[in-house]
Predict the structure of 33 kDa chaperonin.
Amino acid sequence: MSSRDYLLRATAAEGQIRAFVCTTRDTAEEQRKLHNTSPIATAAMGRLMSAALMMGVDLKGDKDLITLSVKGDGPMKSLVATADSHGTVKAACANPYVILPAKADGHLDVGGAVGKGILSVIRDNGLGEPYVGQTQLLSGEIAEDVNAYFSISEQIPSSVGLGVLLNKENTVEASGGFIIQLLPFAEESLLDKLEEKLKTVHSVTDLLKDGHTPESLLEFLLGDFSPEIHEKRELSYFCNCSRERVEKALISLGKKEIESLISDHKAQEVRCDFCNKRYVFTEKELEELLKR
Ligand SMILES: [Zn+2]
């Protein structure tokens, strides 16, 4: 599956500002097709994946992974997106079919679907314990929550915008977003000027409606601050599951769990939450896992 999605990594104001800007239409649509998500879930998952992709590109190591996990008391319950440093992401949610009335402004009520809860940001370099940062959800609208994570957990003054635009058939018309961050040595006056500019951004979805590309979005947001693009990266939805990984996951469930599967005396099907791929284990194969 080829994807037209991409991301720009940029700086502005002579390096005092750094920015990530992306479009993720194909990624969001791939997710929607895989999980048959309702419009609200499509929007929530698309926003979360855009954020994960932009944060993933900032990872240092080749094998590093970043996971954004949202657990709320709303009907969506939980959603998760994991991105690597190469521009791929996979995502899953507990309740892909949630439907709620639109908000007064006509937008999808993502905050209502997610509810109150916790955003966890898990950085895993594959060696030892992952690093986990957590913040309370501010609104459940995802962008504000990721923004709160940056300001509270990482103490980086940031502005995060995320949006997903659906068409009449409830497929994804456009998706994307931005993360703009001020570096510690940035001048006070720059902060004011940037805040002034970002106040004019009311809805990323409305910007996407105008057909912005990452380049034009960057120009729109930071055109007054002499932006410089340092990297362009293609983005796509990709699940790296394999039979080997599923076997490991089964083993990690423990002896009792595997024994209870065997006691069914029939082949067991394990489905990947991220891509729906099915892995079948016969009774004999499960017995072999037990020995390992
Ligand atoms: Zn998979």
Notes: Residues 239, 241, 272, 274-275, 277 surround zinc ion (CB under 6 Å). The chain has a mean pLDDT of 94. DSSP finds ten helices and 13 strands in the chain.
